[in-house]
Amino acid sequence: MEEVTIKGLTFVPYLKEEEILKQVKRVASEIRRDLEPGDAPIFLCVLNGAFVFAADVFREVDVPESEITFIRFKSYEGTQSTGVVKQVMGLTESLEGRTVIIIEDIVDTGVTAQQLRATLKEQNPKSVKMATLLFKPQSLTTGQVPEYVGFEIPSKFIIGYGLDLDGQARGLRDIWVLKDKEK
Ligand code: IMP
Ligand code: MG
Distance between CA 73 and CA 90 in Å, rounded? Predict the structure, then answer.
């Protein structure tokens, strides 16, 4: 089988670009369907991992009044969540009264989502919803179920389409999964 090796770890194919883009289109149409007349949504891309999904889903939603902005968090070291989420870059615009759509690459424990929603609430937005390309329901420890989900996946470590291993592999067009150790 085809494989890629990043930092000494071997990954095998998991989701092809074509399947990913199909789910991006579906998620975008759900977001568009739920907008209220006159809504000028602000998309909030959670860096770094979500930048590829955000670019694709934002263009696919295709509402001319929509805006996009960025916030940055870091929680992973290697293939494990540290459980501590650091905000590395903050928000500059006001979200008061805005329809906010958080764009995540993946919801794992949900700790990032929980912290983010708590931070946003202080600004009194009209509504806050979260769209994630990937969701690992079995890893969720927080009750932070995202409103829009591209794929539900098991609790395995993946890379590509924005997702990284210590900063590498984000540019892969497909998504790859860490190969199980051979016994
Ligand atoms: P959470 O706070 O545990 O939900 O973690 C969310 C963040 O952890 C994501 O936005 C990713 O940056 C990172 N993450 C979680 N699972 C993976 C994975 O399988 N591959 C790469 N990054 C991951
Ligand atoms: Mg992330």
Answer: 9
How far apart (Å, rounded) are the C-alpha atoms in residues 163 and 161?
A: 6
With a 6 Å cutoff on the Cβ, whether 75 touches ligand 1 is yes
| Ligand 1 pocket check for 157: Cβ under 6 Å | yes
User: What pLDDT score was predicted for residue 65?
Assistant: 94
* Contact criterion met (CB below 8 Å) for 164 and 49: yes
**Residue at 156 is within a domain:** yes
Distance 94 CA to ligand 1 centre (A): 26
Q: Is residue 26 part of a domain?
A: yes
The residues annotated as belonging to the active site are: 108
Q: Is the CB of 115 under 6 A from ligand 1?
A: no
Whether pLDDT at 76 is above 80: no
Model pLDDT for residues 30-63, shown as the tens digit of each residue: 999 999 998 999 999 999 999 999 999 999 999 9
- Domain with residue 154: its CATH number is 3.40.50.2020
Q: Which atom of ligand 1 is nearest to the CA of 156?
A: 19
Q: Are 42 and 99 in contact (CB under 8 A)?
A: yes
* Total domain count, the chain: 1
Task: Tell me if 32 is assigned to some domain.
Answer: yes
pTM of the model: 0.92
Mean pLDDT, to the nearest integer, of 95-113?
94
